[in-house]
Design goal:
Elements (H helix, E strand, L loop, with lengths): L9 E3 L5 E5 L7 E2 L2 E2 L6 E4 L12 E3 L9 E2 L2 E2 L16 E3 L31 E5 L2 E5 H7 L4 E9 L3 E10 L3 E4 L8 E4 L7 E2 L4 E9 H4 L5 E11 L4 E11 L1
Parallel strand pairs: 11-19
Antiparallel strand pairs: 1-2, 1-9, 2-5, 3-4, 5-6, 7-8, 10-12, 12-17, 13-14, 13-16, 13-18, 15-17, 18-19
Length: 247
């Protein structure tokens, strides 16, 4: 079973930003001198800061509700709880203590219950993106109106799938949840109900099509389309399609 998440945990974003989790308010409940984190706490990337554009400046801790343990009426956070940065990337978290939470929703924390297979930690989702990088010239589009459409796809795999979400991240400060697409600009099949898409089969494909008209409005730079896949335990991974827009 997963470890309880404390302020001593090593937290990072995919771009090397180091996370610092902040209890709000402080509660003086600790494990190995690290305060136990609860649903509703916050975090910032400042040790070191994230170098992406825009940066993963912080994160909000939201419990998936997969345990019964509470403090002051709030769910205790688990290392396995899925948490995103403010720009849509999944966090990486690790704890060095040995305190696990063996409870399940609706069970007394002292006794727990038989852990079902989907709540184990041996299933790691995977995401493959094709193609991973696509060039786009604004000048060429302006003279030829080509390409009209730019497609790419994500293939998701997990024994116990739960949900997926798609974000567009790029300069100058674009951080959009495009799980449901953008009418006449970004088409997503199957359409995900923002903020997440339903994922029920062990293998699934999410196809994304961008219009040339939409790409021509983007700032010349690299723009990331990031799909994060999450299983029922909260374990996650992501695939990233890079649209390299040139003037």
């Amino acid at each position: 079973m997963p470890k309880i998440w404390t302020t001593n945990a090593q937290v990072s974003c995919p771009h090397g930003g180091g996370g610092r989790s902040i209890p709000v308010p402080p509660r003086l409940a600790t494990i190995s001198s690290g305060e136990i984190l609860l649903d509703g706490d916050q975090g910032v990337f400042d040790s070191p800061p994230c170098v992406n554009t825009p940066p993963c400046a912080g994160y909000a801790l939201v419990s998936m509700g997969l345990n019964a343990t509470t403090i002051q009426g709030r769910k205790v956070m688990l290392v396995s709880d899925f948490v995103q940065t403010f720009t849509g990337f999944p966090l990486t978290k690790s704890e060095s203590h040995v305190v696990n939470d063996k409870t399940l929703p609706g069970t007394p924390p002292a006794s727990g219950a038989v852990i079902p297979p989907e709540m184990q930690e041996d299933d790691q989702p995977s995401v493959i993106v094709v193609p991973p990088t696509v060039p786009f010239s604004v000048a060429t589009f302006g003279t030829t109106s080509q390409p009209v459409m730019v497609p790419f796809s994500f293939t998701l795999s997990s024994q116990y799938p739960l949900m997926w979400m798609l974000w567009q991240v790029g300069p100058p400060a674009v951080q959009l949840d495009v799980t449901a697409g953008i009418p006449s600009q970004v088409t997503v099949v199957p359409v995900g109900a923002s903020p997440d898409g339903t994922w029920s089969s062990p293998s699934a494909t999410v196809s994304v099509t961008l219009t040339g008209t939409y790409l021509a409005t983007l700032t010349p730079s690299t723009h990331h389309f990031v799909l994060t896949a999450v299983n029922k335990r909260g374990l996650s991974t992501y695939g990233q399609a890079d649209m390299v827009v040139s003037a």
